[in-house]
């Protein structure tokens, strides 16, 4: 019996950290993530990105978790204001990366939008192959 | 000045608009459209047209045709985010608030003069426009008011002369 209890405790010790981590594979993610379109006035589904969730405390950088129309995670996006990137005293350290394996990365300029009004860079960590980016394309 | 805000419910009408290369030339008494647009990755946003000459009493309708962003049509006026006055002194300022894709906002302009407007989240990126009602009796783009806005916005305004000569100014 004592062996069973010890084994159960050991299993729980292994499993608990995983249970404590946010579930992000399917929308909506658990934890402090909120749907971006409910935080600011933006379309619910952004062509090229998908449906975005973010922990408001992490704005503007994110991570933003992006999902396709079936609620499957496709990318993790960071939004880094250009003026911060050119400020030698500004750093973005230890940004969370809960999305798992990264297939490829896109970086491009964005002129701004509600939530991150200043011109900024989108750093997109794609968790799906290039061909599957179509899952968040415009209809 | 009259202001109205509505959502385009007629999907067919919206699709028809989206498929056109440029704003429709209005029939008499119909609103003149200014399209809010952006490219696919959001790196470039703009009003089309960016400059217009109209008659007193005509209505302007801004419509958001950018599927991936929200935009505003907001007059340069101290009531709007403490911006310098860049519309006639006797005109009423407007602010559409954020328009989602296919939403629109209309204003009827009566007072003669120059009206400068901007998009709240995209003024930094140069998303501004200018309307001249009748004759350019005011001169909003003086040195003091120009210091109030970003360099990108300052260079995006079409000149009064260009608008008066061409009637409609497009940048795309």
Automatic annotation (TrEMBL), chain A:
Signal peptide bounds: 1-20
Superkingdom assignment: Bacteria
Keywords: Signal
Keyword field contains Metal-binding: no
Coiled-coil spans in chain: none
Pfam family, one: TTHB210-like
InterPro entries: TTHB210-like (IPR033786), TTHB210-like_dom (IPR040832)
Domain TTHB210-like, residue spans: 68-109
Name under which the protein is recorded: TTHB210-like domain-containing protein
Organism: Microvirga terrestris
């Amino acid at each position: 019996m004592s062996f069973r209890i010890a084994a159960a405790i050991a299993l729980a010790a292994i499993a608990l950290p995983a249970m404590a981590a946010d579930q992000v594979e399917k929308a909506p993610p658990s934890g402090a993530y909120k749907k971006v379109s409910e935080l600011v006035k933006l379309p619910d589904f952004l062509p090229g990105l998908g449906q975005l969730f973010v922990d408001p405390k992490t704005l503007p950088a994110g991570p933003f978790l992006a999902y396709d129309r079936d609620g499957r995670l496709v990318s993790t996006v960071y939004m880094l204001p250009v003026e911060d990137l050119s400020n030698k005293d500004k750093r973005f350290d230890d940004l969370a990366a809960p999305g798992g394996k990264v297939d490829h990365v896109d970086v491009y300029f964005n002129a701004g939008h509600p939530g991150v009004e200043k011109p900024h860079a989108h750093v997109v960590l794609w968790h799906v192959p290039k061909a599957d980016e179509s899952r968040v394309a415009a209809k | 000045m009259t202001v109205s805000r509505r959502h385009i419910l007629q999907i067919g009408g919206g699709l028809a608009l989206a498929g056109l290369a440029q704003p429709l030339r209005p029939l008499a008494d119909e609103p003149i459209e200014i399209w809010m647009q952006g490219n696919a990755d959001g790196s470039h946003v703009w009003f089309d047209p960016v400059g217009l000459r109209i008659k007193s009493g005509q209505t302007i309708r801004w419509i958001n045709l950018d599927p991936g962003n929200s935009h505003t049509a907001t007059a340069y006026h101290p009531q709007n985010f403490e911006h310098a006055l860049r519309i006639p002194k006797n005109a009423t300022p407007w602010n559409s608030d954020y328009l989602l894709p296919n939403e629109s906002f209309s204003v009827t302009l009566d007072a003669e003069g120059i009206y400068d407007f901007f998009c709240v989240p995209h003024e930094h990126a140069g998303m501004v426009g200018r309307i001249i009602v009748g004759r350019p009796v005011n001169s909003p783009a003086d040195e003091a008011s120009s210091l109030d806005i970003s360099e990108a916005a300052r260079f995006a305004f079409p000149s009064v002369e260009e608008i008066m000569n061409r009637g409609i100014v497009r940048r795309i």
